[in-house]
Amino acid sequence: MGRRNLIGILFFSIFILLFPLVGRISAVSHYVDIMIFVGLTAMITMGLSLLMGYAGQISLGHAAFYGLGAYTSGILTAKYGINPWPALLAGIFLSAAVAVIVGSPSLKLRGHYLAMATLAFGEIIYIIFNETVSLTEGPDGFGNIPHLSIFGFKFESILANYYLVWAVAIIMLIFLLNIIHSRVGRALSSIHGSEIAAMTMGVNASRYKIQVFVISAAMASVAGSLYAHYVQFINPPVFDLFFSIKLLMMVIIGGMASVWGAIIGAALITFLPEWLLFLEDFDILAYGLVLLLIIIFLPKGLFSLPGILYRSVTPRLKSRS
Amino acid sequence: MFQSENILEISSLTKAFGGLVAIFDLDFTVSRGIIKAIIGPNGAGKTTLFNLISGVLSSDTGDIIFNGQPVTKYKPHQLAERGISRTFQTVELFSEMTVLQNVMIGRHIRTRKGVLSVGLKLPASRREERAIFEKARYYLDFVGLEEKADQEAGNLPLGQQKLLEIARALATEPKLLLLDEPAAGLNETETEMAAQLFKVIRDEGITIILVEHDMNLVMNVAEEVLVLDYGRKIADDKPEVVRSDPEVINAYLGVDIEYA
Ligand SMILES: Nc1ncnc2c1ncn2[C@@H]1O[C@H](COP(=O)(O)OP(=O)(O)OP(=O)(O)O)[C@@H](O)[C@H]1O
Ligand SMILES: [Mg+2]
Q1: Are residues B2 and B78 in the same domain?
Q2: b/e map A10-20, b = 16+ CB within 10 Å
Q3: Chain B partners of A200 at a C-beta cutoff of 8 Å?
Q4: Given pLDDT bands bounded at 50, 70 and 90, which one contains residue A313?
Q5: pLDDT of amino acid A321
Q6: For residue A188, what are the contacts with CB-CB under 8 A and spacing of at least 6?
Q7: Same structural domain for residues B106 and B169?
């Protein structure tokens, strides 16, 4: 996947490893908890960035895949006493299967049919979460979802969940970087370079678009399952259209064709309410403002900032020496 | 396996864009292992013909038989898989990718590993990636661009971009190679080298169809010349016969100052 990404992963892992030290500072001790949500959100936005940046498609239904994972895990473990790990797998398979059904017809066509199909799909899932009361307890949601455990170790504490979530997120990051630096990733980028050349080189665009969509849905589902086992309680509003839109914002803010950017976007938007508490209900305006500023001043997203700074500084350094 | 003598057989092919008939009732064949040139004035339908053969456009009527198999309604990726590859009149590179990566895309159709396999970096997918890399280097070497491997493709001078398109097309291991004005924009030495390259490719057993305005190049490399005018065939013969055909001279050669 290239040296730069390897070094990136190394430094990022060290950062994640050490971050909980901020928990010792009382004013920001709850940041570790927030970082769990950043990790969960990043699992979704990383997949979405591949979908948006490489496959050129928009999904307005990823909150629903997040919800499918959460509800599958929650219902199977809390109501049927099934072990959380097979329940998590069940969520993955369900989300992947649904993604194939929702995605295949629209991804074979050109244009943004996927955005419309996933919008409808997200709304339907949201209605199901609210209306199938016997299964989901409707708008009230339900609790008693057990924590995950492995070899007798229970992921109960914030710290344990923090490391679990980020270990999974980093594995997903590596998985996606591997894809990007493979024949599949090259095929996806070639479609942007020249669609007609990609076609005649035998790249079957719709096939890869579907695969990327399914993978991003499965990753969102894993995030949902981990969410359910951490919070131990789920209710529908977490998985609504607004969250799907926020996910898109995070990807755009981070820089669409970069999985690293997707993590940065997830972190920024997840922490923003924390920093904007004084705005109360007007935080949606702040989101809009941030999005607007970034689209205007950094059209390639926050992740392009270091490169821009670097390039603006290096000529000066050179002229000095 | 039975090998038909003709690699390509085209019959009654027609393609119109609205009221404009770009290819009309065209019949011709291309024998295996030759270089066949297609010439004709601007707008004669040469590029359209390539788009039909490579599946980028689908014809209104007519049949295309490639390598003994009817392929008329095939998609571009199906044709690439069966052995048709091409270059473009207006260069169509993946300009933000490196030179080597462009050729690596050419290996796409000859490799198989899917998204899970490459994501998990399974041993088989690592081996395949290695093979893609080596084959791509081989074809880059073949056209003499090995030193440019890591440059951004869009930064190459036009002549090298045209060579890169040929390397990328060869990397698909085609049986039939369609070259759309490969010498346009090249200087005299580059054109001479391109002519040599085409002959080497042909000697490797790859049939070439060459659309070209440079008559010297055509007369130098082509074994057969098809002349199009307003989407119709006006001649299809050996170069020396075609160059003295009055209808051809009238339609094309007579007014072409490039012909010396
Ligand atoms: N996609 C299209 N839509 C509409 N008209 C088209 C299209 N492609 C080609 N044409 C028209 O079809 C005719 C044949 O075009 P074509 O590009 O095949 O000619 P050509 O022989 O390649 O010309 P040149 O030597 O200039 O490259 C032209 O009149 C052109 O304007
Ligand atoms: Mg043309």
Answers
A1: yes
A2: eebeeebeeeb
A3: 54-56, 76, 79-80, 85-86
A4: low
A5: 45
A6: A50, A54, A55, A208, A212
A7: yes
Instruction: State how far the Cα of B77 lies from the Cα of B56, in Å rounded to an integer.
Output: 10
Q: Is the CB of B17 under 6 A from ligand 1?
A: yes
Among the candidates B139, B173, B207, a domain finishes at B173
Question: How do beta strands B224-229 and B35-39 pair?
Answer: parallel
Q: pLDDT tens for residues A219-235?
A: 999 999 999 999 999 99
Range of the structural domain that residue B107 is part of: 93-173
B257 and B179 in a common domain: yes
Classify strands B69-70 and B207-211 as parallel, antiparallel or unpaired.
unpaired
Residues B54 and B179 in one domain: yes
Q: Does B88 touch chain A (CB under 8 A)?
A: yes
Do both B164 and B209 map to the same domain? no
Q: Where are the alpha helices (H) located in chain B, listed in sequence order?
A: 46-53, 76-82, 99-106, 115-119, 123-143, 158-170, 188-203, 215-221, 239-242, 246-251
Whether A93 has its CB under 8 Å from any CB of chain B: the answer is no
* A4 neighbourhood in chain B, CB within 8 Å: none
Tell how far CA B47 is from the center of its chain: 10
**Nearest-CA neighbor of B44 among B255, B260, B259?**
B255
Could you report the per-residue pLDDT of A242-262, keeping only the tens digit for each? 999 999 989 988 887 789 999
Asked if B161 and B32 sit in the same domain, the reply is no
DSSP label of A147: P
The reply to whether B166 falls in a domain is: yes
B124 in A contact zone (CB under 8 Å): no
The reply to whether B135 and B181 lie within a common domain is no
Residue B224, in any domain of the structure: yes
CA B12 from centre of chain: 21
- pLDDT, tens digit (0-9, with 9 covering 90-100), for A138-166: 999 999 999 999 998 999 899 999 999 99
**Hey, are the CB atoms on B97 and A193 less than 8 Å from each other?**
yes
- Count up the domains in chain B and report the number: 2
- Among A4, A9, A183, most B C-beta atoms within 10 A, so best to mutate, is A183
| Cβ contact B120–A208 (<8 Å) | no
Query: Which residue among B94, B120, B132 places its CB closest to the CB of A183?
Result: B132
Q: What distance in angstroms lies between residue A69's CA and the mean position of ligand 1's atoms?
A: 52
CB-based burial of residue A171 (10 Å sphere; 0-12 exposed, 13-18 middle, 19+ buried)?
exposed
pLDDT at site A314? 65
Structure tokens at B119: 């994501």
Q: pLDDT-derived band of residue A25, with 50, 70 and 90 as boundaries? A: confident
Residues B64 and B27 grouped into a single domain: yes
pLDDT digits (tens, 9 = 90+) for B225-248: 999 999 999 999 999 998 888 888
Give the domain CATH number at B10.
Answer: 3.40.50.300
**Closest CA to ligand 1's atom 2:** B17
CB contact under 8 A, A190 and B85: no
H or E stretch at A33? helix A31-49
